[in-house]
Target: Redox-sensing transcriptional repressor Rex
Amino acid sequence: MAEAKIPKATAKRLPIYYRYLNILFNAGKQRVSSTELSEAVQVDSATIRRDFSYFGALGKRGYGYDVESLLNFFKKTLNQDRLTNVALIGVGNLGHALLNYNFRQTNSVRISAAFDINEEIANTIQSGVPVYPMAEMKEQLQIQQIDVAILTVPIDDAQKVADELVAAGVKGIMNFTPIRISVPATVRVQNVDLANELQTLIYFLDHYGSEAANQSTTD
Ligand code: NAD
Model:
């Protein structure tokens, strides 16, 4: 991750910039103007300039941005030059979908181990990922040096499993359950709540109409 502290909204846009720069690079493009970048990623150019300013002057006036150096820069910032293994806890409806998806768009993150309490699914391989019983979670997380976990267990089990993850040394939890889990200050939680996102979108449309159409609801 970047050394400098950057706003959360900026951090969320970095992977979007990175993905588009990758496409440009693979298509052999050497430079990109801020207008072109803005149209492609649907973020206004003032926001892009402000985002990039947190990392120092990366563009040149009248030239735009050098695709390769910008790409290399984001690759380092986003740790795209190394693979991070993550775990998934709860291989039900949502868990299966995430295992099947397994972040194919990026080469830098993959779910390498899944865990479930259900004996019928533990000790099987789902979408190419081994599913272990919960009793093996701590050991596997340590062997595989995993410190990020995706939580897709039922609401009632969320806090208990989060506690187990913390005890196993996990440093980051992506929480798909609708409850806010409690963790020590040393552990980071990212909540993903589809219902919330949808309600925010509807709120923006109701209050601002198409004015807000091109703005991310997470800004
Ligand atoms: P599900 O019932 O299909 O799957 C849950 C899985 O967790 C099952 O395989 C079950 O065996 C396992 N499990 C139960 N207790 C466990 C424990 N203590 N330890 C390990 N594994 C355990 O549920 P689902 O539809 O996949 O939803 C999972 C969670 O994701 C729920 O909390 C749900 O509310 C939430 N959800 C979130 C979103 C979202 O947008 N964030 C969308 C859908 C579902």
